[in-house]
Design a protein that fits this description.
38% helix, binds NADP nicotinamide-adenine-dinucleotide phosphate
Length: 238
């Protein structure tokens, strides 16, 4: 077996960036993908400065053409669907207000925005890369989801984000079932509440701690789980 190749979307900052670092430290060649090529290249340069094998790639997960081009990349063994937006964040003028994160107030268009990036973005990347994994008989797909997408005990607030992550979890089940016999393991993970631009400064976990479960799911052995939802390497309810 040669060196394994991993691709991480939305990897110029936050948990994606830290996932690239840890996968590269584990001996993977990592494609650091970001929608802005300059940001991708500067993040990859930082990690190459740490003697890690990282290359940059422009990839906007909302662009069907951008994603379809991935099929020409050559071997990709591991896909981490990390890119996401919290569409109802305070920066979004449509969501500002006292009830900014209430489903009674969030504009339906924000649900569509979240769906485009968080759900269909992952869908496009799996469609581009899973056929190659299936042909080679090896693949690991990690859908970075969230406890906010758990139907079990789901509460109010953050409707766009919650719906997009619940649907992402459904994709995990569907692709896991379709790829089970091809050596491709597909799982959802919740990294926990982490200090990033999305998580904010009050979050509990450092990015380096939060990505441990992402890296674990990306590097599962052949007899590892598929079609599951994990936090801290433990199965959690959907
Ligand atoms: P973040 O700091 O906000 O970073 C999000 C990343 O996604 C950025 O690199 C951003 O790129 C990228 N992105 C957004 N839209 C994109 C698009 N259309 N195409 C390509 N890249 C795009 O968020 P994070 O905290 O690292 O979150 C990483 C993952 O963990 C997400 O899936 C998130 O839902 C999940 N998660 C996070 C937490 C938490 O507490 N932080 C908790 C649970 C789950 P730009 O720089 O270009 O905007």
């Amino acid at each position: 077996m040669g060196m394994r190749v991993a691709l991480v979307s939305g990897a110029n900052r936050g948990l994606g960036f830290e996932t690239v670092r840890q996968l590269a430290r584990s001996g993977y060649r990592v494609i650091l993908a970001a929608r802005d090529l300059d940001k991708a290249e500067s993040a990859a340069e930082t990690l190459r400065g740490e003697q890690l094998d990282v290359v940059s790639l422009q990839l906007d997960v909302t662009s069907t053409e951008s994603c379809a081009r991935l099929a020409e990349l050559g071997t990709v063994d591991v896909l981490v669907n990390n890119a996401a937006i919290m569409a109802e964040s305070d920066e979004n003028p449509l969501a500002v207000g006292v009830l900014s994160r209430s489903a009674l107030d969030v504009a339906p268009g924000l649900v569509r925005d979240a769906f485009e990036t968080n759900t269909l973005g992952a869908y496009r990347l799996v469609q581009a890369l899973a056929p190659g994994m299936r042909n080679r008989g090896y693949g690991r797909i990690v859908n970075v989801s969230s406890g906010l997408g758990q139907l079990n005990g789901m509460l109010g607030g953050y409707p766009a984000y919650r719906v997009s992550k619940a649907a992402l979890n459904a994709l995990t089940r569907i692709f896991a079932a379709e790829l089970r016999d091809a050596g491709v393991l597909v799982n959802s993970v919740c990294p926990g509440w982490a200090k990033t631009d999305m998580g904010g400064p009050q979050a509990q976990l450092e990015p380096a701690e939060a990505v441990a479960t992402i890296v674990w799911a990306a590097t599962l052995p052949d007899d590892g789980p598929t079609g599951g939802f994990f936090r801290s390497e433990q199965s959690i309810p959907w």
